[in-house]
Amino acid sequence: MTKIGRLSARSLALLLVLVFSPSFAAPSQAALSQAVTGEQIAPGVVRFWAGADAKAFALPSISLQRAFPATGPAPAGFAVEPMIELVDDITGEGTAGQRTVIEYAPGTSLYGTGEVPGQLLRNGRRNVTWNTDAYGYGNDAPSLYQSHPWVLAVRADGSSFGVLADTTYRVECDLRETGRIVFNAEGRPHAVIVIEGATPQDVVKGLATLTGTIAMPPKWAIGYHQCRYSYYPQSRGLEIAQEFRKRRIPADVLWHYIDYIDGFRTFTFEPEGFPDPAGHNATLHEMGFKAIWMINPGVKAEEGYWIYDEGEAGDHWVKRADGSPYRGEVWPGMCAFPDFTRAETREWWAGLYKDFMATGIDGVWNDMNEPAIFNVASKTMPEDNLHRADSELGGPGPHARFHNVYGKLMVEASREGIMAANPDKRPFVLSRANFIGGHRYAATWSGDNVASWDHLEWSVPMTLNLGLSGNPFNGPDIGGFAGNGDAEMFARWMGVGAMLPFARGHTGKGNIDKEPWSFGADVEASCRRAIERRYMLMPFFYTLFREASINGMPVARPLFFADPVDPALRSEDDAFLLGSDLIVAARLTPEADRAVVLPNGIWNAFDFNDGEDINLPRLFLRGGAIVPTGPVTQHVDEKPLDPLTLLVALDENGSAEGVLYEDAGEGYRYREGEYSLRTYRAERRGDRVVVSLAASEGDFATPDRELRVRVIGPDRREWLGAGRDGADVAVEMMR
To answer: What confidence tens digit (pLDDT) does each residue in 7-18 have?
Structure first.
């Protein structure tokens, strides 16, 4: 590329005036000096710029959890050196931008790229980061609801690197050319951050260092959720909850879609169908259910509607390019949209949750927040709309700059409001739209999927790639949102969906019923067994969520994490790991005959005495692992964890180890030490296996409980033992 000398101070000043002027006139990208420079910001993490001028014109990062000042120049011989070019026309239509090219060696496998359809392995694929209302998306959809300009690369030797294009603008992530990762980004110059690691796990943890980790969720949020568009009126929702309890199918959460809203005016309740939301929520609580209700960003533009009037008085709305209020059509009709780029507006929005949460609402679903707009080709607001952003977000700018973070900023405000309303409870927010780093504020799901075998198959790789992109708390709409599907597909979907981090059954308006019992007794039995598995594994799931909150490791992990060098595992996306110790081998095709490649080493098959149900995934426990499990409960708070059952698989040396994390499941006292982290070890001594409590930390009072030990051997052999938790338990290994 052509190198141009540095701009004079006078030229820099002139360009700054242009950049921050209300008309958003952009300087010529090619006029900036372009000599790629790098600075280290953490061990193994280097931030690259197209040059000093590019760094001067770059906007503040919205991806990272905090500013990361340089600690020094890029280390000599750093393994990845991107080629970065600033261009005046990145799109062929006169839009300025930045092109970044990263070359990689043969045998490198590519992953991540956020929320994308299709298979796990991203080599040969192209996607565009532009949050899109993508109802019923297909395999070729370039954009879905969230944006993660991030690629994880795993080399042939298992060493890895990750690349983040640190920009909120639209980015084409082009992985179609072998040997090259290409980011074509619109808009202002931006940093390119490279994380180098010995393993893919190192890189994922490095990403978490930059973008943050999830907060520990309330334990009930890890249970099974039931939803549809819509359970109306409130008596219908109670009928569904009662059926779960009557049929002894575990569940923790009932969801409330938009039909509860009075004329779709956000933060209101429709008086005929939902005359007593507080009483309704109280009844659900008595049954052991939590209640989640939807809130959308579009505010009906109607004088006399108090939220609209407040928004008008506070000047909280997104503007058109000419400064007039923007209006777009969504469920209520013509709507105004809060400008979440303003701290004042986020504070106002957060305050709206106080009375809403006072009705006994436990969690909130922010939907339609790409933002989705009806009856326009773009499905969203004009890109030249004006956001009057605060200085920490880079100051005022066009919607093209803030589109991808609109949902992230919304859920940040929602979370703040929910926490203020319920300061002693952990918040739960689910968001359809988000941006990399937004996992700190909200869980997510894979959007409006389809009741098809393809979408069932994609449930696993979509969950895994989101986890590899920083968001461990996600999953699909179990059963498919669009369309009906059939009994066999639904049973299979429940089988795998109940083992993913976020487990929620859901379907769209006008579809058949899709509760676990809706397809007859046989499917109901499979669904019950699938969900019971989740609840028996709840101690393990909760421990994995705690790990995710500490170091960013996904709850559900790709199989190649078990052996990053093995090329046979690189494209395996019918199976996945929970943590490091448990393989879930799903049956995702109608024939259920696809062979799953297992990693080398000891992986002992087992089940929960639920038989050879073809609808349930096969389970394999790693040799050397101990996994904590509990009894089936109808919801997570039904009773204490007693007995505790440890699943043990010995390694080649006859030993194993595992951890169990416990706390109150709610509130924040765990931050003050009120938690329990217990390490168990198993050792074979002749014909016995002795399981001991090897270490314990934290002040949480665990119950005086029975400890059961289940040693899983090869060829489905098992040996059982029992005692008291905290004391040694010996298991006789009968030959």
So the answer is: 333 233 333 333
